[in-house]
Amino acid sequence: xxxxxxxxxxxxxxxxxxxxxxxxxxxxxxxxxxxxxxxxxxxxxxxxxxxxxxxxxxxxxxxxxxxxxxxxxxxxxxxxxxxxxxxxxxxxxxxxxxxxxxxxxxxxxxxxxxxxxxxxxxxxxxxxxxxxxxxxxxxxxxxxxxxxxxxxxxxxxxxxxxxxxxxxxxxxxxxxxxxxxxxxxxxxxxxxxxxxxxxxxxxxxxxxxxxxxxxxxxxxxxxxxxxxxxxxxxxxxxxxxxxxxxxxxxxxxxxxxxxxxxxxxxxxxxxxxxxxxxxxxxxxxxxxxxxxxxxxxxxxxxxxxxxxxxxxxxxxxxxxxxxxxxxxxxxxxxxxxxxxxxxxxxxxxxxxxxxxxxxxxxxxxxxxxxxxxxxxxxxxxxxxxxxxxxxxxxxxxxxxxxxxxxxxxxxxxxxxxxxxxxxx
Amino acid sequence: xxxxxxxxxxxxxxxxxxxxxxxxxxxxxxxxxxxxxxxxxxxxxxxxxxxxxxxxxxxxxxxxxxxxxxxxxxxxxxxxxxxxxxxxxxxxxxxxxxxxxxxxxxxxxxxxxxxxxxxxxxxxxxxxxxxxxxxxxxxxxxxxxxxxxxxxxxxxxxxxxxxxxxxxxxxxxxxxxxxxxxxxxxxxxxxxxxxxxxxxxxxxxxxxxxxxxxxxxxxxxxxxxxxxxxxxxxxxxxxxxxxxxxxxxxxxxxxxxxxxxxxxxxxxxxxxxxxxxxxxxxxxxxxxxxxxxxxxxxxxxxxxxxxxxxxxxxxxxxxxxxxxxxxxxxxxxxxxxxxxxxxxxxxxxxxxxxxxxxxxxxxxxxxxxxxxxxxxxxxxxxxxxxxxxxxxxxxxxxxxxxxxxxxxxxxxxxxxxxxxxxxx
Lengths: 424, 424
Prior knowledge:
Protein name (chains A, B): ROK family protein
Oligomer: homodimer
Strand order of the largest sheet of chain A: 6-5-4-7-11
Keywords (chains A, B): Carbohydrate metabolism, Xylose metabolism
Number of domains of chain A: 3
Family (chains A, B): Belongs to the ROK (NagC/XylR) family.
Mean pLDDT of chain A: 86
CATH topology of the largest domain in chain A: Nucleotidyltransferase, domain 5
CATH architecture of the largest domain in chain A: 2-Layer Sandwich
Low-confidence stretches of chain A: 1-5, 400-424
Domain Helix-turn-helix type (chains A, B): 15-51
Structural class of chain A: alpha/beta
Region (Disordered) (chains A, B): 391-424
Distance between the termini of chain A: 35 Å
Helix content of chain A: 40-55%
Strand content of chain A: 15-25%
CATH superfamily of the largest domain in chain A: ATPase, nucleotide binding domain
CATH class of the largest domain in chain A: Alpha Beta
């Protein structure tokens, strides 16, 4: 019985397979594209032809491995650009990326006055700086925001640093820029960034913990950013480790944040030295003193390392990740912090997982926010909805590309095959 | 430019969409199938025709809503049967399910002697009992096994109750039965069962905790069973809550299992009463005494409830689930256990998630294992690999169904459309 298939949907999926392969591998021959997609060579070349025609993909002649020189395909960097924006504590960073996810330009501007107006004008300035001379369209803008964010609505629910409450940031900025805007919290963005380009490369189940003033985690599970359902995820900082411990800002006692955040460590250090009056100390100063031999500082780093290992051991037992990454200032605590952390984590984690988990410091440092914010957009661009994000493909559809679906024929593919870029 | 699509793959995906819709909704008209798949009516009817021809789907005339009587489609219950097997502590349960996931027959046989031979012959007996008079083929067998299981290999790595170590159970049983066998641990199976048919129905992010002799959890995240990567997942029983607490079997101190498992509660109760000699007490006896006014028993239930709430609050903060389910004997502790559990969970969980999480007792009780074991198979049967599991469809492919892909035509669909089961 003849089965009629939906040509538009199939073509979308085939195109997506090829775009994703080129995203993952950089450059592939038509033979490889057909083999890895499971498409016939004819079908694969027809999709490639369409992507070439819309300038989404480019081709070049590769080196011969004994026979004909193969034609190699890769994403066209100028197809469009993605902007990642990180709303930091005192400055706003923006970075532009080409379609093949290479950094093109970056800009850092001081945060304007708090409140919507000041921050927004700084965002506009930073984005303007990295988009002024791009040789292609902006596909979308990703924003890594501090505080509580509802990513599905693009809303910043609460961000004390910015003085924001219930700000519909995605809507405001997409109005200003005329391009789609995705907003998520900075920890989720950094988690994506480290998993794709940083210390978690190649891992499908990653726990990313950032320990600074607060402690929060992001999760990549089964290869995807996990957002949970009720807006609160990754709150490892409020795992209670010492039921009768110090009071936390959240109202509970003995949370990890009261034991291993920067303010907690500074408090602990000063308490150990019997200092009680006012006094400021940066984390950097604490570590310098520790490595210069200050025993109170050394004890502080060791204790906090142990508490972090304790909390991460619990997380490891619950989620069985293959990688645990630690970032933020605290990750710079050096071996005095890391050694007890690792020992405690291994001790807490149930075998056989314990020895195999990759535990490492985040690599991307202050770039994690912009790289991750751009990833929020790239994840959409390389999704089944890609047509919505790629003007070149969308325009082709509108111009009648969809009519071509109807008059199928063998010729296009057959002719191409005899052009002979297929090696065996 | 004509784009040639891969007909076999497209047809598979379209067929899967329709099978999944009928699985979720029970019965749908051709109009609904087309609307919900996004296929043209012609395309939808062609897939349905194929499924009717292979007797995978059946049709009947529905009630008129003013116009023609619609034709309604549903899964054919006799297409094939799935067997779920639960390897319990002292008995083996098997249950057979029709293609539309209705229970057909169940059997319980006492566990044979431990060691491979005894257990396996009991499994064969129980499976034999529920497959002897089925009106269709067995599609596959799912096994819920206790202990440490490598689901990807179908291996029971360690199961003290059964006296097993590194038993390739899937391989052994598929050899005996000549059908595919999937093995996973009993907690994962029960998690699937409760999410699909029990207290977690309709939820996409579920934490399922079973508290008996031990305490373990299963996770459904983003709608899928989450297995992690290193074989250890859901070990919430070994979350350390009291760093200087009692020694746990795992070698650490103060794990949740030392505070809220059945043996821990019995120990705590006897300690509160100053009993030190040998003595056995069932959980049932403990709760009876508590509700009869025994203060030590009441304190025991309350304390364990609070510790469970504490641990679940940490899990809620990490994963932001929409449902938390508690099963096992301890879940039968009644309000003396549940009230402090809920209070502590709400107190620990960070708003705004706290009030919205659905917290409930598992509903499926001793059937969770067999229902869940069968779900392990149904998840595969309704996956892109469905042809491997459905002999009727596979045989059609072999008989030349794939040739039909080539000679596409409008006729089949057109003729069907004029038969007019399409209402508006």
